[in-house]
Amino acid sequence: MKKNNEPRSMPLFRPLLLCLTLIASLGVLSVPTSLADNILKDRPPFLDLPLRCTLGADCFIQHYIDLDPTKAAHDYRCGSMTYDGHGGTDIRVRTLADMRSGVEVVAAADGIVVNLRNGVPDTYFSSYSPEKKKEIYKIGLGNAVTLDHGGGWTSTYAHLKNNSITVTKGQTVRKGDLLGQVGMSGLTDFPHLHFELRRGQVGIDPFSGRDSADGCGDIRQTYWSDLALQQLDYRDQAFINTGFSETRPTGRRDLESGDKAESVLPPMAPTLFFWTYYIGGKQGDVVTLTITGPEGQVLATHTTPPRTRNRIAETRYIGVKRPEGGWKPGAYRGTVLLEREGQTVSDDALIIAE
User: Fold this and answer.
1) CATH class as words, domain 20-229
2) What InterPro entries does this protein map onto (predicted)?
3) What percent of the chain has pLDDT over 70?
4) What span, in angstroms and rounded, lies between the C-alpha atoms of 340 and 337?
């Protein structure tokens, strides 16, 4: 049996990038004075979910706005689902395969397109050369659309898929109109939509009504519509991908590709690995991975020591060698249990030996 409790994922870089990057590089410094009467209203917008997916099923919030004015980082619930200086809400899809299939980004509220950028490739920022990183850093939010909602309120939709933007500058859009698709352009290392709400030059957390100078705490005002709030329960952990493969995972990207999981185990496969990729790791977490055979027998299991620090993204795996005579026909089950402060969450996967 082979087992490995070493985290295989790279830390998701912690760029000190705020929406000012987009403002400076796109020129969103002034707003047209002649907006449509039904948009120009001196009140905040009420926002629907800005992409077409089901939160907790095929998309997940990986980062909230950082509301801690110090070098620490806290989301609106004073939790750890953010990083220092993060200025928006990151809603991710599970895999690059999901991204390629096309996940639609839509206007969260009525507005006018005041700026956009297209033409930035969908690439892991960490894969760029040092010189290219300097270039991409200047256009950190990648392909993006900014809408003006009147009254000084704007929303920005960033890291969109290259050549997916469907709107033009000056176009009036309605809530729910298609803007583009989820991508991985600009300064990012995972497929997601970065969404920002701003009033003037100040970023506003749509969950609490606070800005980064306020700190976390009580909810002053939510800017989400009742429809959006039905999906927006706060979650501080989520399993992104859990599955089996004949080969050992090589890291987070391998599990994020969408091509790793296998459903059929050849009888003479030399090894079998069970793995999981999750977000929202916290200090004190204990994770147990187990592989059971067709008759319910435990083939491999491992429990990690308690985590010593928070970590947004984490991968774990265990493996087992082929038994003498090959894999018995039937279903092999992998189970991951994450224990936190007396509570347990789990995920599992199956692979069939024929």
Assistant:
1) mainly beta
2) Cell_wall_metabolism_enzyme, Dup_hybrid_motif, M23ase_b-sheet_dom
3) 88
4) 10
